Recover the amino acids of this structure.
C-alpha cells in the first residue's frame, strides 16, 4: 500500500560540483614517481612500499622505460603461495609485476581515471608523458581521487523540498 505523505517544509543541501576544484589527473597525481627496477628483488620492492607509504610501484627497465607495475597485493600473493614463498629470495619484480602497466595522461579528467581503475580493478595508474608512453612522470592512486572528492565542500545550494513528493511505502 502506497500513501501520499504531505511534503515537509525544510531546506536541504544538495551536492553541486564546484568549478574551481581539481578535475584533471595532473591536478592530483603524485609528481615524484618512485619506481623500481625490473630486476630488483622483492625485498627491495617491499622496502620501497614501507619507506614511502605507497602500495604500488611503476617498474622500469635498464633504460628507465616503463614496463609494468608491481603492488603490495602481488607481494602478498607471493607470500601466500607456497612455491613462490619458497623461492622468495630468487624472485625478482619482473616475476610478479603486471604488464603492460595501465597508464593515463595528466590532461585526462579524473572521471576517466576513476572509470579505468574501477574497470580494471587496480589501485593506481601510471601517469606518462604526452610524447612518450614509456616515460613515467607520476602516479595517480585511488587515494588521490578520494582526496579530491573529499576536498569538495558541502555544496550548500538550498533546495525547497516542499515541491518534492514523498511517498510512504511502509505497510
Amino acid at each position: 500500500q502506497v500513501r501520499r505523505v504531505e511534503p515537509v517544509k525544510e531546506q536541504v543541501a544538495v551536492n553541486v560540483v564546484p568549478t574551481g576544484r581539481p578535475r584533471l589527473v595532473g591536478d592530483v597525481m603524485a609528481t615524484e614517481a618512485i619506481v623500481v627496477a625490473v630486476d630488483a628483488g622483492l625485498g627491495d620492492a617491499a622496502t620501497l612500499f614501507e619507506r614511502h607509504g605507497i602500495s604500488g610501484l611503476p617498474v622500469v627497465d635498464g633504460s628507465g622505460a616503463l614496463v609494468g607495475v608491481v603492488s603490495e597485493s602481488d607481494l602478498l600473493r607471493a607470500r601466500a603461495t607456497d612455491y613462490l614463498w619458497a623461492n622468495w629470495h630468487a624472485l625478482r619484480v619482473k616475476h610478479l609485476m603486471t604488464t603492460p602497466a595501465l597508464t593515463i595522461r595528466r590532461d585526462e579528467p579524473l572521471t576517466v581515471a576513476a572509470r579505468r581503475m574501477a574497470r580494471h580493478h587496480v589501485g593506481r595508474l601510471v601517469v606518462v608523458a604526452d610524447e612518450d608512453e614509456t616515460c613515467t612522470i607520476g602516479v595517480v592512486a585511488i587515494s588521490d581521487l578520494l582526496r579530491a572528492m573529499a576536498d569538495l565542500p558541502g555544496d550548500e545550494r538550498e533546495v525547497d523540498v516542499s515541491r518534492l513528493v514523498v511517498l510512504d511505502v511502509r505497510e
Notes: The first strand starts at residue 3 and ends at 5. The helical segments are 25-28, 42-52, 72-80, 82-86, 93-96, 110-120, 142-150. Confidence is low (pLDDT under 50) at residues 8-18.
